[in-house]
Amino acid sequence: MAPPMATDIQGTMDTQIATFSDGLSVNGVAARRCKAPKMAGGIAAHASSDMFKGPGRGKPKAKRWDHRLNEESKSRKPSSLKGAAKYLKNPGIINLGGGLPSSQYFPIEYIDVKVPSALHFTEQETKELGVVKRIGKYDIEEEKGIYGTPDTTGK
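Structure (tokenized):
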């Protein structure tokens, strides 16, 4: 593990920790927002903390805290759903994830999916013996769906 890096602080007296070349004031917020790139987002858009960071000119460098993390914390990866959300900003891509826009926004009426039948789970068996399930746009609303209860009878 690397030790923490030294900060780049140039204090001039005991009460002053760092010098800032261009501090942000209330009057400067509007101008800073005008310079920032426009945020492209839609329904449930991807967001990262990097999108909200301002320029760091004149600010002291941050300390490294990696040596304080245990192995479990270091091994953590971002959520795959959050990672996939970055593709939502591409025009024409609609996320079919739960809880996202109302079904009226989807340009589909139904989706047919071929799923494995009981005890036949290989790709070849699914191709030959799989069961086609139709998922309708308004199945839950019209109480036609069997949400949470998979049909294993093969009918």
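The chain has a mean pLDDT of 75. The helical segments are 29-35, 71-75, 80-85, 123-129.
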